[in-house]
Model the fold of this input.
Amino acid sequence: MSSDKTNEGVSSAEEVSSAFDPARGFLDFWRNYFEQTAIQTRILLEGMQGGKSLDQLHSQGLATLSQSLDGFMRTPAFLEALKQSLKTMIDLKLMQDQVAQTISQQSGLPLTADITGVFERVHSAEQTIMKQLAMLDDRLKVIEKTLNSGPAEKTPNPRRKRATTKDDGDDDPDDPAD
Done:
């Protein structure tokens, strides 16, 4: 009788220790998972023998995925969700712009549109100035070329008028002092 009691005590002690051992349940779960995965892999590999190549399977899988995504994206539920999402984004952007405009008006800060207008005007003025400078540069090159070409006789410019002074009758046209 005493031996029955000792055997009973050992088996109940093992049951108690396994019931309170959290690692035991965890290890049993993953052991069963890997056993089932190995069985499924073996079945899959046996079915693939003499079948299609991996490239063919890959292209077939992509085609199937493409068809299913295309079908999903054409469903009314998806299109309605997309429509609502885009509408919400547009409304949020409009609200953000309105808040930014209100804050900028109250604080006196310029808006992007104001700065863009000023930038365009400054850019236009810069282009005009650059064109004028290019024309002046061309004219300066022509003048330098004529000056550097050699000592040529100076011919009076017929378009240029001579300065006139008051005639007091004392002027001699050959006088070097004039």
